[in-house]
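Let us practice reading a record.
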Amino acid sequence: TVPGEMTVDMGRRVRGALSLMAAGHGISGVQLSGLANEYLSYFTSPQEYDAQHYEGGSTMYGRESSVLLLEQLQLLTKALVNGTPAAAP
């Protein structure tokens, strides 16, 4: 899940990265979902942020916020495929 709305481009990047990490571990697909009442605005690729079109201009937490989400989701995926607990909240 993500706490906001990812653009199509960033969503594809996240799904692709997580799919690669999960390959060979019995996971056949990755679905991204935004949580209700967890809206933190848009999450764009750094390139979309730089363009400052609608979504990039409405990204509240900066150019690298979606990269941070991707990195954290990769850590969670690694824990999932290795059977280790996720970090404490």
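A brief commentary: The CA atoms of residues 70 and 79 lie 14 Å apart.
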